[in-house]
Amino acid sequence: MVAAMSLSDPRLRQSREAHLSRLEALFxxxxxxxxxxxxxxxxxxxxxxxxxPERWVEVALDGxxxxxxxxxxxxxxxxxxxxxxxxxxxxxxxxxxxxxxxVGDQWWSDYLDTPVGELxxxxxxxxxxxxxxxxxxxxFLSHGVTVLLFGxxxxxxxxxxxxNLHGPDFLLAMLVQPDAARHDLRVIxxxxxxxxxxxxxxxxPEQLQPVxxxxxxxxxxxxxxxxxxxxxxxxxxxxxxxxPFDDELLSVYEHGGMIHLCGVHTQHIxxxxxxxxxxxxxxxxxxxxxLDIYFHELRDDQIIYLNPTSTMTIERALEITGGCRLVxxxxxxxxxxxxxxxxxxxxxxSTTCPSVVxxxxxxxxxH
Length: 367
What we know:
Structural class: alpha/beta
Shape: globular
Strand order of the largest sheet: 1-12-11-10-9-8
Oligomer: single chain
């Protein structure tokens, strides 16, 4: 219990709560004095998670103890994050029986032999992947380290998992076997909801955060899903097949949540603007290049998390947004003042900064 004692310093909690209060204010549409900047602290021990999970937890906690003072940064929100991430983005694939294996630093998976439309729910009670995840969660809880945030494994989204399990066959099935595609989406979706609800039941809402919490930490009561594969879909196909599942998955959380994006996804902005459960968008890599489109076309209560790139720099991001509705995932030495954002001639609405808005209520799932 050394970690629990070392992380009991009230200054750590006070720092975390001060930053979370600012983040809650941002989500509530209240003006901030400075741009919100986030860069959490996470440890990845050299211990083999898959053969010694309890030891892995101990080493991860010791590493966070050693870095605890870094979280006292008054400018950048630097939460201490415990996150394990078994099998990377193929965590759920392995639960469904896919062969998952490591090549270098990356996890890969093979497609299932099962045809689209014949996917069956896994037996979680006997699944070793899920057993490992629960073992790590229980080991974490046994240390009583309440100052830390707990980041989820990659539960992803119904579309991401369907593409991981079936590859291009699933995309074709959406066109020529829509009932089969919807069957598998439903089976996947119900498992994802079950996994989220297990964590909600076992991890304190004070600590529970989505995957990659160091760069995607939200106020309490918000979830997250991975929208990577929406890059492959037309706006009409996403609206018809996937949006209802994404909406329902985010609605597992009290306040809705976030969609992570890393490709070209702007064709889906109209449906995301309508999606009451969608409260934030996370942009990295190619998706970051479209920051100006997201900023001007999403709702005023939808927050944008941005990982700057060599071309979408901090300076350019602040020119576009003024720092409004923005969580900047970066490291800065001094507070960044808010500005008046630029408004391109094609912008369809005002971009006055800052503005106070009322969050829209969540919509009940319709299916």
